[in-house]
Amino acid sequence: MTAQEHGERHRAGFGPSGPSGADASGGGRPSEAPGTVTTPEWLASLARAGARMPVPSVMRPPESGGRRSAVLILFGEGEHGPDVLLIQRNNGLRRHSGQPAFPGGSFEPGDEGPEDCAVREAVEETGVDPVGIELLGRLPELFIRPSAFRVTPVMAWWREPSEVRAADAGEVAGVVRVPVSELADPANRIRARHPNGSSGPAFRVHGMLVWGFTAAILDRLLVLGGWERPWLDGQEAEPVALPGGGTGEDVRRAAGPGREGRGS
Fold first, then answer.
1. Within a domain: residue 61?
2. How many domains does the chain divide into?
3. Structural domain containing residue 161
């Protein structure tokens, strides 16, 4: 089921639905429309595994409270093989300023589920054409404690890639398709020490330092997808240098040299 069909089904009064041939948790194989590019088996398998992945205690949502939100994990097939769509948030945002992230945001009136929210936000932030997006399922709901967001990641296949850009300049500084091979490359992977003192996976790609919530999900998907490669010897936890209180410029300095994450 495409993202556009999903939204039309809601508006027609059919109620919530998962991917065609699957329940809302992401199990099962998505259906194939005539004349469309078939969803790769590796991605269908990854979506099924992701729906069952365990949630670390630190990311487990509380019984109540928190702001409902969703992100779109949009995989495509690019020049360098499978890739995933990321954005870099604008420096001036009150929360998560300057951080690389999946497209997404908070629920708004009219969003009948995480799929609606994730696709709507992706369209608003990147200008992606929802007709070319095939919804595959959801990962378990996760909790971002610093901002109290309850986030449902939605897995999708970019069946018909379209032009993307920083469509909402007030929120998005750049948009980039990051090859999975670059995320899996040990030379681009580090352990980052977060401002709260904990450490977690991080990636230096396209002039960005991807860390925190987004990096944790990417790290887990690399494992589930069988892409993980042994890290180089001697990898140590490195601090994410946020001396200015977590601004986007601080994060970019910590990313070190590399290609800027702007444009498709």
1. yes
2. 1
3. 3-178
Residue 195 lies in a domain: no
Whole-angstrom distance, CA of residue 71 vs CA of residue 146 = 17
Instruction: Report the DSSP pairing between strands 189-193 and 199-205.
Output: antiparallel
CB-based contacts of 15: which residues, under 8 Å, 6+ apart? 112
| Residue 139: other Cβ atoms inside 10 A | 26
200-220 per-position pLDDT tens digit: 899 999 999 999 899 999 999
16 part of a folded domain: yes
Residues whose CB is less than 8 angstroms from the CB of residue 73 and which lie 6 or more positions away in sequence, other chains included = 84, 102, 139, 153, 154, 155, 156, 217, 221
Helix (H, G, I), strand (E, B), or coil: what is residue 144?
strand
Question: For the segment 9-60, what is each residue's pLDDT rounded down to a tens digit?
Answer: 443 332 333 333 333 333 333 344 444 568 999 999 999 999 999 999 989 9
Position 67 in a domain: yes
Residue range 127-140: mean pLDDT, rounded: 98
Domain CATH code at residue 118: 3.90.79.10
Using an 8 Å Cβ cutoff, are 96 and 251 in contact?
Answer: no
